[in-house]
């Protein structure tokens, strides 16, 4: 007859199953193997959950901008910001709704790089965020962290979301920001699609064409690239629907295009007149001023 062993079988009990003594399973190796296999996979799953929690707590402990550090020995946000109740996935108690939310949104950038577009967009969206400069040659953050542990691609921009998820690629980050503040995207049922169309053009046809200027291209390569950039800027100038890409209001596509125009100036490429005027207009926007001042560009 079945007889419960005194020895606990914690994994089964943790999953609400009856504790099954191994002794009882003697002589039924197939069943034993199956149950052991199941127990192992529970164990493995549990280990990976615990590892995820440990990593999030570690990040919070070492990086105050990720919601912890200061005065929180367990790596969670300060006690005063938490409420009683169940713990979240990282093992911390929930944040109180009556306390200011800890900012975990964080932009990794390099001064004057394409990440300036995201920097401007975050300000334009009125989001509260932290930022840290990255040394792109050494692949180290200002704080001395190996940047490839944050973005394995090793390039900026990288945006750490509140969830801890790391977003890379200008098109995705700018689209995400525009979803947080829909004023930064054109309206209408096709608005987002047209925004992605513009962002993809700026990313793949303009941004990438600058490579010879930043990656030690020859004079010939630079001349060819400059010609191509001029043509594509000509297209962009003709497609402008008003003062900005989509008419009278500024979108994240304008932020990205503006950075391309700053690069054009640096590379001594003369943009078409409407885009030169657009660059000056953009320079007056508070979000642009704030981001450029922070990056010590003005
Ligand atoms: N595909 C990426 C490219 C980003 C990119 O080109 N980043 C440059 C700065 S503008 C960078 O970090 N370069 C350093 C490297 O690639 O090592 C995107 O569109 O976001």
TrEMBL record:
Stored CDD domains = GST_C_Beta (cd03188), GST_N_Beta (cd03057)
Q: Which PROSITE patterns match?
A: GST_CTER, GST_NTER
Q: Which residues form the GST C-terminal domain?
A: 188-298
Region entry Disordered: which residue ranges? 44-97
Where does the source fall among the domains of life?
Eukaryota
Q: List the Pfam families hit by this protein, alphabetically.
A: GST_N_2
Residues in domain GST N-terminal?
Answer: 102-185
- Family that this chain belongs to: Belongs to the GST superfamily.
**Protein name, please?**
Glutathione S-transferase
According to its UniProt entry, this protein's organism is Imshaugia aleurites
